[in-house]
C-alpha cells in the first residue's frame, strides 16, 4: 500500500502513529499564573548530549488557550518545564492527566499524584517518577499545521529514583518505561539486549 497524506489513507484509522513506534512519553509539568499543570506527550525525545536537550511537540489546542494547550501556554509564560518519565505502574495516573481539563484545574490533584518542587526551576515534578528532567526552554517553533508547536529545552537538573540505580547504571527494568504505540495502544519495556558497534 502507498498513500499520499494529503490525499488520505482510506483506512479506518490513521496509521501514522502506528508506524513510528514505540515512542517515549514525556509527562510534562509546568507552572504558570493559572496554576500547576501535568500532561503526557508522545511526540517526545532527547535530541542532544552536550548540553543535554529534549523536545516535545503539542499538536492540538483548547478553547481556553487559543492556539495551543496548557503546557505550551505556560512554557511561553515562564520559560521552564519538567519532563517526568512514565513507568508502567503509573499508566492509569498518566491517562487521567491526558484529559482536557480547564486551564487552572490541577492534573496532579485529579490523578492523585504527589508533587514536589524542582531544584533548578520554579516548577513542580511528579514525586514518584523514576526520573525527571528539569528544563529551560530554548526555543518554541511553529510547525506546519494550525496548532502544531515544537518545544525545545536544555536540561538543567536530573532526578533519578534511587531504586532505579543499579551498579552505577540507570536500570529501566526496575520501573519498565511506558511507551506509546499507534491508535490507543501502549507497551512496557521489560526485556533488553545489547549490541556492540563495529567501531567499538
UniProtKB/TrEMBL annotation:
It holds the Pfam family Flavin_Reduct. Keywords: Oxidoreductase. Residues 18-172 form the Flavin reductase like domain. The keyword Oxidoreductase applies. InterPro entries: Flavin_Rdtase-like_dom, Split_barrel_FMN-bd. The keyword Kinase does not apply. GO terms for molecular function: oxidoreductase activity. Signal peptide: none annotated. Its EC number is 1.5.1.-. This is Flavin reductase family protein. It comes from Psychromarinibacter halotolerans.
